[in-house]
User: Fold these one by one.
Assistant:
Number 1:
Amino acid sequence: MEKKKKKKWSLKEDFKKRWQLYLMLILPVAYIIVFCYAPMGGIVIAFKNYSFRKGIWGSDWVGLKYFKQFFVNPDMAKLLKNTLIISLYSLAASFPAPIILALALNIIGGTKFKKFMQSLTYAPYFISTVVMVGIILQCLHLNVGIVNNVLEFLGMDRIDFMGKASLFRHIYVWSGVWQGTGYSAIIYIATLGNVDQSLVEASLIDGANRWQRIKIVELPALKPIITIQLIMAVGGVMGVGFEKVFLMQNSLNLPVSEIISTYVYKRGLHDMQYSFATAVGLFNSVVNFILIFIANKVSQKFGETSLW
Amino acid sequence: MHKKNAVSGTKVKLYRTLPDRILLAAVWVMMIFIMLIILIPVIFIVASSFSDPRAVSAGKVFLWPVDFTLVGYDVIFQSPSIVKAFFNSVSYTVVGTIVSVTLTMLAGYPLARTDLKIRGVVMFFFTVTMFFSGGMIPTYLVVSKLGLIDSFWAMILPSAMGVWNVILIKTYVQSSIPSEIFESASIDGCSDWKYFTDMVIPLSKPIIAVMVLLYAVGKWNDFFSALLYLNDVNKQPLQLLLRNVLVENDSIGMAMNLAQQMSRQELKTQLQYSLIIVSSVPVMLLYPFIQKYFVKGIMMGSIKG
């Protein structure tokens, strides 16, 4: 807020005229300062030996000690690898899925069935993460789950899905597709609904079949949104959801399911190594920011839409 | 291919060639697959929750209740800790939604006013937080320094206002309430505040509905805040208790008299199914209302984004 005076307009005059609006902004601005900017300032503890007694400012500086500690940690490579694999796999599966769904629904056309399918596919989005994981655990349960019940019915052996580390990533990613595809498709469906009908007619007159129409008319119409969504998704790579991974973790899948954010939670809030955990979290954010920056640069290069 | 007419309407040429027919058939196969894959897990959970625990344990339940019983629901309503957690969640959701919607409106309206000179600065100040955050531990330390750990407000305040939602409100007010209305109102001596309460709020009902639904679903489903900030069992919301029962396989909150009637393991399993249902019912009841507004909300956001 210190920047105010640099502007040509006078703060005093603006305030005099619009003081009621200023008053309205007090609470939201206070919220942002306390719960967004204060924690950003709190990041300094990554460079300090934080002790609860001395507080954030009183604690001693230790420089890059905790970053070094993390980089020499044998867990670091594993954490980074797990985080990247889960999120890239997730991206590869859940990014195209809504586009395919939207194109398919568009082929079905403006029928009641389309509306029904739309409502049905985005309903899972409203299920909470805890319930979602509960449903996964119950459906894949070794003894009582429906998947194993069917396998047994078909004369096959029951599989301990949650007990196999090798299956963790697949379960995580495809349950995510199950839950999120319909919701993510909304924006694509709406865009396809706004496609210029004269383009469609022109393609029909030129004798394009339905496949060609997807290629010539529909995909180009979706392109700008796909680009934006892709940049956002790449930016979210390191922000892979803490909650769901955390809830799906068990001692058997931990070697592949421990990711940076769950590690931060355990080191920070369980072991109370606040400074170390903050340093790890900061490392995560920096990598994340670099990724979104690169993604944006790349899309600018190709002359497409960019975030800024 | 009787569906052809409904699909192609008047466009006669469509779906005549072989590749087109393959495409159409593939799409219908896909739709049926999607329908089944979404419905089967849900039906299985519902069916299991109404089935006899012994049948469930024996792996006999598919898509229809076996030996219908309500015992899983009995346990829920006879367990004080589950009922308590349910009402905790209700109060977090109600109070949280009111606080969040109020804050978001208070921020969104001034930022929509082009005659407010400071709005550029404030907007920048808000937007920065969408790209940078302090992260889990520093946020936890701030919340704890404020003395919010184990307090009611720990569930309300730390995630009270979403900047994205502020932008939604701002965009809505700017694009759907003509500035001429304000100009004529201010000539009549209408203050900024009065204009907000008498004009902006009534005219923004659709977007407020979207906000209420977004925040309410978010608060009801919030597990993260409770995991971080609440240790007190009496304060825990349903989602945290659910985690303990569903994921950690904890048996807290069981009604003892019922537990004695059958083996603990069977009851536990039963409780898991019925808890999934009970915790999802409130959101699912909202769903018909949500879905109409939700799509609109997402679209309004994407205009800007």
Number 2:
Amino acid sequence: MPMIDRDLIDRTLSAALFKGGDFAEVFVEDRRAIGAGFDDGKVEELSSGRDRGAGIRVVSGDTTGFAHTADLSESGLLAAAEAARAVARGAGGGAVAAAAGSGASTPDSGSTPRGVAVLPEMVPKARKVELLAAADSASRSAGSAITQVSAGYADSRRRILVANSEGLWAEDDQVRTRFMVSCVATGDAGMQTGYEVVAATVGFELFETTSVEEVAREAARRAITKLTARPAPTGPMPVVIKGGSGGILFHEACGHGLEADHIVKGSSVYAGRMGQKVASELVTLVDDGTPGREWGTFAIDDEGHPARRNVLISDGVLVDFMWDRLRSAKEKRPSSGNGRRQSYQHLPMVRMTNTYIVAGADDPEDIVASTPRGVYVAKLGGGQVNTATGDFVFGMVEAYLIENGRITEPLRDANLIGNGPDVLSRVDAVGNDFATTPGTCGKDGQSVPVGCGQPTLRVTEVTVGGTAGG
Amino acid sequence: MAELADLVARLVSWARPGEEVEAYAGWDRELSVRVFEGGIEHLVSAESSGIGVRVIAGGKQGFAYAGSLDEKILGEVLDEARDNASFATFDQHLGLASPDGVEPVRMELWRSAVELTATDAKVDLALSLDKAVRSGDPRIRQVESSNYADSAWESAVASTAGVAVSQRGTGAYLFAYAIAEDGGDTRTGGGFSVGREPSELDVEEAATDAVIRSTRLLGAVKPRSTRLTAILDPRVAASFLSILGGTLSGEAVEKGRSLFAGRLGETVADSRLTLVEDPTDPRAYLASPYDAEGLATRRTVLIEDGVCTRFLYDTYSARRAGTASTASAARAGYASTPGVGFRAVSARPGTTSQDDIVSSVGEGILVTSITGVHSGVNPVSGDFSVGAEGLMIRGGTISQPVKEATIASTIQRMLLSLTAVGSEPEWLPGPAAGVTLAIEDIHLSGA
């Protein structure tokens, strides 16, 4: 990375450990982003910006000190190093103030990062805006019931450098592109909404393989379909989840609970269960930061460790957790490449990358046909989990009733609730299809891009939080 | 503070003829301490600042930002915003806020004690909290984290429309998250105390809150599905009022995304409900004399005795609606443009205590926490379905704890099914105050 020379980084690390400490790290980030919003028939605004700075971490015993600065000059970095080391010793004596300010140097844009065909910053802004207008008209042409459309385009380039006192020096250049459409449909029973997003760790070539019109029509179809939806049922019942509808179910049911920080703190239902059966034997769960253009993919994590494919649950048996540097060093094992952070202003922690259930042998149609009554979830929304109890919710934003083995009427939005280990043990069919979806994962106030994937599968019993019956 | 004000004023002075320019600059410093098992897990000292610039030229708007206050880049940010504006669509309603004569309410949100208190004293608060939670009840198995955090912030807005304001404030809080276990059952609960400086924080209050919330649901069972009256405790009610605050946005109304569109003057809720947005109330966590466009904040009655009376507007949405801004512009920071938001929504308190509401309800559920608000509440359609934990109410008294259930209805129906508003409001860290609410005809989904 041309923005900072190596000697300066070395001096910063030395300063960070000047008064002791076991480990020091400098994380430098230069992030540029462009966003364009189309709403209510208009390009509302084009926004662009840049954030650049460094986060410095000092680990001393069980304590971590952290400070960050937007000033990448020698004085800025050394002041941040001093703040980080003071807090690590926890005996500052006075109010700690980190350095602020801004750097003077302007790094060049560099060459096109690996795996990116068309760097978004090289694409004229007008071209990005055209995509939005095309999506708006495609959604509106999908049906006269569509009364409002918003579309969003966003690209970002995030260049990072990680160097630590153990001699690690690693750089990455992460380019991501995203496109979303959200529609409102209006009918006799009020308004409904539909949403669709495509997002990948690629450049503008995303639109060579993705039609924004298709994204727009999908969002519109979802909203229109729900105009005639009936209230979701109440109580426990079989639920079939369509392949690629959003692996958020497993992200919440067991993903978070397999993050080593929760394990070490005893705040996960999966703590102490290594080597045990925690799921149906049909379930193999993988977290993989390596695959091509998935939304949670990167070359190195935010602690400089290469992305890896980690099998967490194999045929129902718990075989590994996800690790960052802090937790793995304590256990004297390598990091699994799951140390991530939202920006240079944040401490890294254990995070998922792309988390998915490996495809099985069942024909997806047979899974539905062999379900006499239940709910078919075609698209999941977000979710939330309490890792200590395992209780989790996840929302459905496109769902249907299954009656006599057939998908019938659409259902209104609702949450479903279950307990992680219980739901995992109730997976009784896993399809031979597979697809992934992009998402944003929030933890402890930090958001990072993640991927979720899963084949069509059935859970014999999940509680559906609707209003029909009961 | 003068520095930020000078900086935004200087940038605005570079506006070209016929161009409207608004600059917003923000600075904040944060300190946070996390304690785990009696030791410091981490100590974070953070300072950040940045600038956001809006340009409106020829009826088109552009925006650019930078995470820096470096003089050298101000011109670049302005140029970038200008360039971005050229790609937007013409919109006659675009415009910056003009001072409207409303005087800002004087409030002192800044406490120098946040800066002057020694870090060790702040660390001690987190350590004491950890200890207090641990010793609070033998069933506390673990305290996942005990945290102290504070922040000091300044911001300034200036524009070619004559806005030139700056403000500053401080905040501090304690938060602990406890895990309780009894007979193989695990439950969790968080407790906090908030203030504008360390001395306003109450370790005992935060610890007791965490202990009670984590232990009182031990032995919880999955309840039977049924229809009943749900009593939302103040923290849960604050989440519900926050959803309402969002649906009462004039921007959502103008763009056909609010379930209240076209309902001004109509009865939308039980007559017990009066809902007010008042950022001038100093008890509110997000109280502020100015909104994000630099207008003086003011009190707005949104629902009065069940009748929808007013929506919230920033300058743009107000122009579209042919009305005046309610000074409700909000921004997430220097990197975002202003939009309609709310800072201090509250329901007018009723005359009955939570205990009295519980006994008068007879049969129902006291909901003490909800999950999945972002995934199960659709503010456009009104569909409402969230994960719920709480205590069943039998014969007018609190009984069996319950877990792994959902409560569901629609926002529209819930408002009309309100049967009681509690008498004791609680100002919570967030944009809404809590108060006990009883709502009948809620679907509880469980076993």
